[in-house]
Amino acid sequence: MTELPDKTDRKMGLVIDLDTCVGCHACVISCKGWNTENYGAPLSDQSPYGADPSGTFLNRVHSYEVQPQDGLAQLVHFPKSCLHCEDAPCVTVCPTGASYKRREDGIVLVNESDCIGCGLCAWACPYGARELDAAEGVMKKCTLCVDRIYNENLPEEDRLPACVRTCPAGARHFGDLGDPDSAVSQLVAERGGFDLMPEQGTRPVNKYLPPRPKDRIAAAPQALEPVVEKATGFLGWLDRALDRLPGGGD
What we know:
Blueprint: E1 12-17, H1 26-37, E2 45-46, E3 54-55, E4 60-66, E5 74-80, H2 89-92, E6 99-101, E7 108-110, H3 120-124, E8 131-132, E9 139-140, H4 146-149, H5 162-166, E10 172-176, H6 183-191, E11 207-209, H7 233-244
Parallel strand pairs: 1-11
Antiparallel strand pairs: 1-10, 2-3, 4-5, 6-7, 8-9
């Protein structure tokens, strides 16, 4: 079985703002594209245009309708990928050492040349964050785009996980969660960031920011008063022209 490092120099991870995520799936598509063309074995699809399509994805977005005790129902979009846990059960259960956690930054990776596709890591992960690629027969998972974040051939602004760089709503943040002064750590402290399923004892590095309370509608909105009694100019002409059409005065 694989051993975890006693400690890591950094704790690189994601902070995801559930209040800002709009469920557009841009992060899903960018993750699929980058990881299919670059690191490791491609993320394959099976019968993508058939009656029963399937494929390998490292990041997925689930949407839930939530009914607070006080207030209106809310639609919450919940992105989920590997959380790069400090006590990662997927690592310690691996019989070949293919799954490992890096000491320098805490990122959990899979050495695909040593993976035998036994599925024990997927069974051990309480978050369902690992997937067996049907074409390659190896386990796949989020790498935090390790081939991007340290790539000095990329512009500095692109040295981020593909999902973070792509998110149009700015709902995804990346940084060192082991540094209390980092932007991501301060964001977690200010917004009350939380662990996913802390009762599992895995100590996930990735954090989620809760949705903010929504404004309540105190009463039905009143009808708006007309801006003018009779339109003039082009709008006045258009209004008169429409009135002359059959049924225009209804």
